[in-house]
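Journal club prep — side note

Before the paper discussion, L.F. wants everyone to see what a predicted structure for a comparable chain looks like in token form. Sequence:
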Amino acid sequence: MRTARIASNRRALTRVREQRRDYEFALPGPLYCDTSALVKLYVKERGSDEFNALVAGRDDVLVSELTVTEIVSALARRSRQGTVPGEVVGRVQHVVVGRLDDGTYRRVELTAAIHRRAEHFLLNLTEIPLRAADALHLALATSAQAASLASFDTRLATAARVIGLATYPR
């Protein structure tokens, strides 16, 4: 019994090391963060510590107002479900907007040209079932000349790699 437990623990440690290795690499900048990535900087989730370490000290993090609205939406939903305290939603929104306003994050504006670029991705990346928000994030990242995109959404990350962006996690 003890031998089986030791073997199981070794397998678990191996998996953790493999997952950690996926997070340990430098990303070229600028780095565009979608909602699934940026929220990890403010709410403890799987991958939060590694992503915080990757972003710490960077001055080339790109964030859009779309991301802020999506974070508020996601956290408000979690608050309604009782998994996030209600006061956290407003506090996170305030901090993220403050970091956009003070230049900690570089703001990427959502414009008509961004919508046209997103529509281009929707029409041309037919092998990937992009949603509208995914296409908008791709358009925002490419319009800001991001070299990397951080997203824990596999569909968006796949599309980003197809158009030549480095992604986090890989």
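L.F.'s comment for the group: The beta strands are 31-33, 61-64, 106-108, 148-150, 166-168. Keep this in mind when we get to the figures.
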